[in-house]
Amino acid sequence: MKGRVGSVVCSRVAGTALIALFLATSANAQLRRFERHFTVQGKPVVTVQNATGRIQVRAWDKQEVLILGQRGSTNVEVDTEQAGNRIEIATRVISGNANPDALRADYDISVPAESELQVRSDSGNVTVDSVHGDMSFDTVAADLALQDVEGYLVVKSIGGSTICTRCSGRLDATSISGDVKLLQPTMDNVRVQTSSGNIFFDGSFMNRGIYVLKNYSGTIEVRFSSTDSFDVRATSLYGNVINQAPVVPDRHSMPAPRSGLAKSLFGTMNDGHAKVELSSFNGTIKISKRE
Amino acid sequence: MSPTQCAQFERMLEEQPDGPLAAEATAHMEGCTDCRMLWSDLEAIRTTAMEWGGQDVEPPEYLWIALRRQLEFEGLIRGSIREGSQRGWVSAWFGAAPRWALAGASISLLLIAAMLAGYQKNEPNTAALLPTRMSISAARPKLVAADLGKALDGDLKQVFDSLPEGNTVLTSSLRENLGIVDNLIAVCEKSVREQPDDPVARDYLYGAYEQKAVLLATAMDRSALEGQ
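ok -> structure tokens follow
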């Protein structure tokens, strides 16, 4: 009898402790969650600085910028500011002695479709969906995924990868070891340089478009369809050029390679409306037919 | 001023390095301090270069000797250069590269020197150092002439040591990429040693050095940011 009473008391104490723990955790999480609304007009400029964590930006049809976020701990603070059509969001580390997870902040940001974005992140993921304004990204190890975006895109990365799906406009991307992948782009000006990363371009070359892809090592692969019209100049100093394009000798007198060492391909496909320049130090360049 | 507009401005400079500024670029520059300073620096470099060419002034002898010794030591040039033809080997080394690439390489090296100088002085804002680039390069020719690579590596270590401890992903990514860039530089230097007359090999070497400058600038930037 005595034992049964003791067991019931223990159970109640444990239950109460569990509920208290749950409530505390929930309250703590609630404390770390935040939400901000900013009414804007026209084309706002949204700046996000977040060293660690996920940044997700989506377009919506409201003239408002909505920021939903979660801080990893109370060791980080989030500052937001509105000055007219300029919205600034910055994660500020209060105490750097915490573990990496405690220093992160995650953001879900909804913006008007025509917004201009400026994002700076060190590690984590950055995704942007359906935004049609100019945007720039400055990252170290953060991976970047852009989808259905349009505008002048500037990407500066050290080791993070970039995937651009159905992007339009212009792209200027540089990285040291990050891969750059362009899927179904409709861009008329593309400049990509990565040192040891791979570059993959799978889309149509637009008339009057200029495509300059360069790396040191790794693979550069571009895919063409039989209706594409481009001049191609592919040069790998110590690597290989593998070509499936039925090019004819260059009709537009592009300058000959300046190096006697390089393996090069010069030629024109159809009327040569676009200009494609592929160059690598010791990587492989593949010009492949799309299946 | 937005980085996108600044990038467009830089591209316009690249595309027309010697021509007059487009109206759009001029308009941007009027409202952007950084780009105005960049333009001012480039003008200073251009003017100085023209003055050198116009007056045919010989550079200080010790500078050529030190540079030549270093490049011969690294095997980047051959030792059979005639006395009194210093300008010849310089133009042979840089000659085939576009002028803008040379200017870019100079800016990168000057930027590195400026940033390192700034770091040593514990100045937090690298942008504020930009106007001092010319004076630093003029005042410290021996730094450039000495083994720049070793000097850079020493200071790089300090910069990397000052990165925030909490963000291990940032630190390891920067270190890993520094290794990649150093490896690229070594491979490109070997290529230039083997093919000293190949302009493409030289272009890749310049590019590799630029990558190192970019990496260092990023590390400096993150270090200052995280240190706030």
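The radius of gyration of chain B is 19 Å.
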